[in-house]
Design goal:
By secondary structure, the chain is of the alpha/beta class. It has 2 domains: 120-280, Roll (Diaminopimelate Epimerase, Chain A, domain 1), CATH 3.10.310; 284-587, TIM Barrel. It has 25 helices and 24 strands. Strands 5-15-16-17-18-19-20-21 form an 8-stranded parallel β-sheet. It is globular. Mean pLDDT is 92; it is low at 1-15. Bound molecules: zinc ion (ZN) (2 copies).
Length: 637
C-alpha cells in the first residue's frame, strides 16, 4: 500500500488533478512548443452534414428522457428537424424545402443519442499514452492475472525492446496505472481483518530492473514508485535534497514511494527533458487516437473535469488542424484559494462552443482505492489513516468539522464568482463536509439557481441522499468503483461500508438526477460498460460465481435508468441538455447506431459492454463506422 506516513505527504489530489501536470506545465507547455508540434499540418476541412430521413430498426430519441420509439428521424444542417412517423418526418422535411436521402436501419439495430461522459481528463490521458501501461485493464475487462510479476514482464519487455538503446543512453522507464488495489491481497497483521494491499518499494522495483531508472505512476495518480537508480539520479540532481541529507537518509525517508507533487517533483524534473518533450510532441496524434476511440465507443460528447488554460489552448490548436469529431465541455480547474481569487465572474453558456466552461472544479480529497479519500473512520487495511482532506486549517490534518479554508474557497468560487461547483469528494467525511458547505452556500445564493455537482460521491448515507435531493445537487458516480474495485473495497479497504458505494438506485428513487463517468483514464471510456456495471453491480475481481458477487443488489438500476445516466441526465450535468443527450427537435444530430438494443439483452453481464457500435454521427456527419471485416465476423458468429 502507499506509505501514508511519509514525511513527503503534501497536498493531495485525485486523478482529477495529477500533480504532475502542474510540474510539467512550466517545462513543456510553451506556446511555441505547442505550435511547433502542429507544424506542417493544414487546416482541416470538415465534412458536410447530410440531410437524411432515417427509419427502420429501433429509433429512440429519448426526448424528455422517455424511452418511446419513433418510426423515423429527419436531420439537416447538423440538427434534428423532426421525429415521429415516417410520413410526418418526410412531410416536415419537404415543408422546410430540404432535399434529403433515406437511410434504412436493419431490424435489430438501435439508434440512440450519442453517449456522453460527464467526467474525463482528455489532455492528461493523451500525454500519458506513450507510457507503459501497467494497469489491470484490458480494454473494458480486467486482465485475469495481475501482480508484481506481470508488471515486471511488461517493464523488461520494454527495457529490452526496440527502445533499448534510448534506455542505455539515459531515458527512464516510465509506466502508469500500477494498482495495488487490483492485485491479490496480502496478509497484513496490522490491518483490521488481516488483509492488506501489495506495497511497492524501491527494493521491490529493483528486483524488476536495476540498471535503468524506473518510475511507475500509481493508478490513483497520488504516488510515483521509483527504483534505487531513479532515486540516486534524483538525489544527485536535486541540491535541495543532497545538501540536506545523505542518500541513505533520502531513501529511508520514502522507500521509493514519492507522494503527491511535493514528493514527485524532484524525480520528474530529473527525467531528461528530451524524453518529456517527446510526450508533448506525440500529443496531437495521441489526442487523435483518443477521440477516435471515444467515437468507436459511441461518444459524441465529453466533459473534461480538470481543464486549465494550457490544456485548453492545446485542444484549440488540435481542433483547428484535426477532424473535430467530438463535442467538448469542461470544468475549469481551481486548485487553491489563489486560483479562486483569480477566477473571472461566471458567465452562463448560452450556445455550444468547443471547450466551453460549465463548472469550476474543486478537489476536496483523494482516491478511495488509493487510500487517500477522506473518511470519518480509519481504513480497514490502513488502521492509522483516515485519508487526506485537501483544505485544512493549520495544524489539523484530520478535521472533524468543515475546515474554514474549505468554506472560504467554495464561497469564493460559488458566491463571489458565481460558478456552478463540480467538487470531487470520495471519502464519506469529504462528502459530509461538501454537502454542509453547499447547504450554507445555497442558502445565501441569489438569482438563478446554478447546478452544483459532487464528483464520485462514492459513499452516501441515507441522510446524504436526503440532503442532496433537498439541495438539488447532482451526484456523478465513477461506477467502475463497484465493478472493478468493489471486491477490494469490500474485502480489504472498507468492509461493510462498501455496501454504500455508488447508490444509484436510492438516489434515483429520491428523485435525484445522476450520471455515470469513467474519470478516464482512471477507467477507460465505455458508456455501455458503465451502464452494465450499474445494472449488475457485479464485482469483477472477486473469485467465484459472478452472480454471487453482487455488491448491494438493492442499488442495481434498470437498463432504462442506466441509459439516462449516459445520455439525457449526463447532458443535464454538463449544462448541455439544450443541445445533446436527446434527439429532440432542434438538438444536434449526434447519434449512435448499435448492433443490439442494450435495453433488451438476455443477459447483461459482460454482454452489454460488448455490443458493437456500428456507426457514430456528430452533427449529421458520420465520424465512425465499424470496419466491414468486423461486421462480417459478427454475422458469422
Ligand atoms: Zn476526482
Ligand atoms: Zn477526475
Amino acid at each position: 500500500m502507499e506509505n501514508q506516513n511519509s514525511a513527503q505527504l503534501g497536498c493531495t489530489h485525485c486523478a482529477c488533478n495529477n500533480p504532475m501536470w502542474n510540474i510539467l506545465e512550466e517545462e513543456l507547455f510553451h506556446p511555441e512548443k505547442i505550435l511547433k508540434t502542429a507544424e506542417g499540418l493544414t487546416h482541416q476541412i470538415h465534412a458536410e452534414a447530410l440531410s437524411l430521413v432515417i427509419s427502420g430498426g429501433t429509433i429512440r430519441p429519448l426526448t424528455d428522457g422517455k424511452m418511446d420509439n419513433v418510426e423515423a428521424i429527419g436531420i439537416h444542417h447538423g440538427k434534428v428537424i423532426a421525429t415521429g412517423s415516417k410520413a410526418a418526418v418526410e412531410a416536415e422535411m419537404q415543408k422546410k424545402g430540404i432535399a434529403f436521402e433515406f437511410k434504412q436501419l436493419q431490424d435489430a439495430e438501435v439508434l440512440l443519442p450519442g453517449f456522453i461522459d460527464p467526467h474525463v481528463h482528455i489532455v492528461p490521458t493523451a500525454l500519458l499514452m506513450g507510457w507503459m501501461d501497467l494497469g489491470r485493464f484490458d480494454n473494458q475487462k480486467l486482465k485475469p492475472e495481475y501482480n508484481e510479476q506481470t508488471i515486471g514482464v511488461i517493464i523488461n519487455k520494454e527495457r529490452t525492446g526496440p527502445n533499448r538503446e534510448k534506455y542505455d543512453k539515459g531515458n527512464w522507464l516510465l509506466g502508469k496505472g500500477a494498482d495495488p488495489a487490483l492485485m491479490p491481497f496480502v496478509h497484513d497483521p496490522k490491518a483490521a481483518n488481516g488483509i492488506g494491499l501489495t506495497t511497492f518499494t524501491c527494493d521491490s522495483l529493483d528486483e524488476i530492473v536495476k540498471d535503468v531508472p524506473l518510475m511507475m505512476l500509481s493508478a490513483s495518480m497520488h504516488t510515483a514508485y521509483v527504483n534505487t537508480k531513479a532515486m540516486q539520479l534524483t538525489y544527485d540532481h536535486t541540491p535541495e535534497i543532497h545538501n540536506k541529507m545523505t542518500f541513505e537518509e533520502y531513501k529511508a525517508s520514502n522507500h521509493g514511494q514519492l507522494q503527491e507533487g511535493v514528493g514527485m517533483e524532484p524525480a520528474l524534473k530529473t527525467i531528461p527533458l528530451s524524453q518529456l518533450s517527446e510526450m508533448v510532441i506525440g500529443c496531437f496524434s495521441h489526442l487523435k487516437t483518443f477521440f477516435e476511440e471515444a467515437n468507436k465507443r459511441g461518444h459524441t460528447f465529453l466533459y473534461d473535469a480538470g481543464m486549465n488554460d494550457a490544456f485548453k489552448s492545446l485542444l484549440k490548436i488540435y481542433l483547428h488542424f484535426y477532424p473535430n469529431n467530438i463535442r467538448i465541455g469542461a470544468a475549469k480547474m481551481c486548485s487553491s484559494q489563489a486560483d479562486a481569487d483569480k477566477l473571472k465572474q461566471y458567465e452562463p453558456v448560452t450556445e455550444y462552443s468547443d471547450v466551453y466552461y460549465g463548472n469550476a472544479k474543486i478537489i476536496s480529497d483523494g482516491s478511495n482505492q488509493g487510500l487517500t479519500g477522506y473518511q470519518s473512520e480509519h481504513y480497514c487495511c490502513l488502521p492509522d489513516s483516515k485519508g487526506k482532506f485537501n483544505f485544512t486549517a493549520d495544524g489539523d490534518p484530520e478535521p472533524v468539522e468543515v475546515p474554514a479554508p474549505y468554506k472560504e474557497l467554495l464561497n469564493t468560487v460559488a458566491i463571489k464568482k458565481g460558478w456552478p461547483l463540480m467538487t470531487h469528494a470520495n471519502g464519506d467525511q469529504a462528502i459530509n463536509f461538501t454537502i454542509q458547505v453547499y447547504d450554507e452556500l445555497i442558502k445565501t445564493q441569489t438569482g438563478t439557481p446554478v447546478r452544483h455537482r459532487i464528483e464520485h460521491a462514492s459513499l452516501l448515507s441515507d441522510q446524504n441522499i436526503k440532503d442532496i435531493k433537498r439541495l438539488e445537487i447532482l451526484p456523478s458516480f465513477l461506477i467502475g468503483h463497484v465493478g472493478y474495485w468493489g471486491y477490494a473495497f469490500r474485502d480489504a479497504i472498507f468492509g461493510e461500508k462498501a455496501e454504500i458505494l455508488d447508490r444509484c438506485k436510492s438516489a434515483l428513487d429520491a428523485g435525484i438526477k445522476i450520471s455515470l463517468h469513467t474519470d478516464c483514464e482512471v477507467t477507460q471510456l465505455g458508456p455501455l460498460r458503465m451502464m452494465e456495471q450499474s445494472i449488475t453491480r457485479i464485482m469483477e475481481a472477486a473469485p467465484g460465481n459472478p452472480e454471487e458477487n453482487v455488491l448491494n443488489a438493492a442499488e442495481c438500476i434498470s437498463p432504462e435508468q442506466a441509459l439516462r445516466t449516459v445520455t439525457t441526465d449526463a447532458a443535464y450535468h454538463c449544462y448541455a441538455e439544450k443541445w445533446v443527450g436527446s434527439l429532440a427537435v432542434g438538438h444536434f444530430s449526434d447519434f449512435v447506431i448499435l448492433q443490439q438494443d442494450p435495453l433488451h439483452l438476455e443477459s447483461n453481464y459482460m454482454q452489454m459492454r460488448d455490443i458493437k457500435v456500428l456507426e457514430t454521427w456528430k452533427g449529421g456527419v458520420m465520424v465512425y463506422q465499424l470496419p466491414v471485416p468486423e461486421q462480417v465476423s459478427l454475422v458469422n458468429d
